[in-house]
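Appendix B, Record 12. Input sequence as logged:
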Amino acid sequence: MTISTDQTLFPPFTVTRAAIDQLTALGGAVRIDLEDGGCCGTTYVFDQADPAAPDAAGGTAYGCPGAWLIVSDAAAEVLPGATVDYSGRLKPPRFRIIGNPNTEHVCACRRSFGEPWPGPRQPTCRSYQPMPWDTTYDPPGDWKRRTGYRTPRSRAQEE
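Logged structural output:
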């Protein structure tokens, strides 16, 4: 893990102004990781992290004190040359990776990569899955039925 709390560490990828603004709005630290799943086999995962202790999130912390983008070792292998963006106009609003030269096959929503895109309406689709901190977005009913998605509220009511 590479952490330096007193200087700026620039990433080997581009971060848009919209992503920086959203990072700041979320409190200063977001972690990017990868997990199995999604239409194309591997999905980008974003989660909030503690800006006061970016080293606790694991990976490499890019940025400056109080504003960190923490990238897991697995994500660091595929992100060089890509662009990390945030769009509030998407449904749901989300971070996304665009223009990644290291991923030949990408799903239409840009959330997963790896295998050729199998087409729309897949049961593994994550196109409408909200960011973990987004408690207000309610995905479309047909997408929830097809994917088996449960909102955090519905999961909590079942327990």
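The longest strand covers residues 29-36.
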